[in-house]
């Protein structure tokens, strides 16, 4: 973080209800030597959104008309709102503007819908990772999250390792894509869902019970999307309350069901998603994943980096 970068905030989703956290994040980023612009998006509000549709769309399409591109484009928070805008996003203009310099575009949750649409329509690789309010504005910063963020956006090759209960998996190569599972599902049957062959699908979610998670994965299976994948990697699935009624039905049984039905390796345990600690993943990059004696490894290449 010794180099100063221009960071532009965008808020295409929900109103930033934790204003204190967002301001704390801006202060931190500036103390670290970065320039932060478009901070007025933090306080914008219309109903539950971070401004009306036109204002939030301008956050996205306005990027194609900037005289000076930022180094990093950072989502303020998730929530809901991106899918209202997708049919009006200037994908061609963004692709053309970013052809000479691809900024680091980062966020997760509802932001997944925009990221996957940018990959599908413009071929742009963006990063599923921390956001302004929830991550950079956390009362206690996660060193894990910060280290993985800066490493992902500055290193041409990134290798992640984690412990996984998944049986051994020989090295599998493919295109890494995915993000928030519920948002992936909202794009099924639309022009904005990427369809990479030989994909490595990485998924995470919050407040989704195992049965709803399984139901979404079965929809991906029955719609033919999982048939084009070579592996599935699961991140954090938190916030669901299991009861006696579940009688042993949990996320581990979901992953096994998906293995049994699809024949795909489902590699669990990656710190990725809505938790305090999260890695940063380039969506659309090339990846190689394997599991050897309880240790999973994912190597990523071909993504944009800060220059």
UniProtKB/TrEMBL annotation:
Transmembrane segments: none annotated. It holds the Pfam family Peptidase_S66C. Keywords: Carboxypeptidase, Hydrolase, Protease, Serine protease. InterPro entries: Carboxypeptidase_A_C_sf, Class_I_gatase-like, LdcA_N, Peptidase_S66_N, Peptidase_S66C, S66_fam. The active site is at 109 (nucleophile), 204 (charge relay system), 274 (charge relay system). Gene3D superfamilies: Class I glutamine amidotransferase-like, LD-carboxypeptidase A C-terminal domain-like. The keyword Hydrolase applies. GO terms for molecular function: carboxypeptidase activity; serine-type peptidase activity. Residues 173-288 form the LD-carboxypeptidase C-terminal domain. The keyword Ribosomal protein does not apply. Residues 7-129 form the LD-carboxypeptidase N-terminal domain. One of its GO terms (biological process) is proteolysis. Belongs to the peptidase S66 family. PANTHER family: MURAMOYLTETRAPEPTIDE CARBOXYPEPTIDASE (PTHR30237), MUREIN TETRAPEPTIDE CARBOXYPEPTIDASE (PTHR30237:SF2). This is Muramoyltetrapeptide carboxypeptidase. It comes from Paramixta manurensis.
């Amino acid at each position: 973080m010794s180099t100063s970068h221009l960071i532009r905030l965008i808020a295409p989703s929900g109103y930033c209800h934790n204003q204190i956290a967002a301001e704390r994040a801006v202060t931190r980023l500036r103390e670290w030597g970065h320039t932060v612009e478009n901070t007025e998006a933090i306080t914008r509000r219309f109903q539950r959104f971070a401004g009306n549709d036109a204002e939030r769309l301008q956050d996205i399409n306005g990027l194609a008309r900037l005289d000076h591109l930022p180094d990093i484009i950072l989502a303020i928070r998730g929530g809901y709102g991106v899918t209202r805008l997708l049919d009006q996003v200037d994908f061609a203009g963004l692709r053309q503007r970013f052809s000479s310099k691809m900024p680091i575009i980062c966020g997760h949750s509802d932001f997944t819908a925009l990221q996957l649409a940018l990959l599908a329509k413009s071929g742009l690789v963006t990063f599923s990772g921390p956001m302004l309010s929830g991550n950079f504005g956390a009362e206690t910063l996660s060193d894990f999250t910060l280290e993985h963020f800066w490493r992902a956006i500055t290193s041409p090759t990134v290798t992640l390792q984690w412990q996984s209960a998944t049986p051994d998996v020989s090295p599998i190569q493919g295109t890494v894509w995915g993000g928030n599972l519920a948002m992936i599902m909202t794009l099924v049957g639309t022009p904005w869902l990427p369809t990479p062959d030989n994909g490595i699908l990485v998924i995470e979610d919050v407040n989704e019970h195992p049965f709803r998670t399984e139901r979404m994965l079965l929809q991906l299976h029955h719609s033919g999307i999982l048939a084009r994948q070579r592996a599935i990697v699961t991140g954090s699935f938190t916030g669901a309350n299991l009861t006696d009624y579940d009688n042993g039905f949990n996320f581990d049984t979901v992953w096994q069901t998906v293995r049994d039905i699809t024949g795909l390796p489902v590699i669990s345990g990656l710190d990725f998603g809505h938790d305090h600690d999260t890695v940063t993943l380039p969506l659309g990059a090339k990846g190689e994943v394997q599991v050897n004696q309880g240790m999973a490894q994912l190597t990523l290449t071909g993504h944009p980096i800060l220059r």
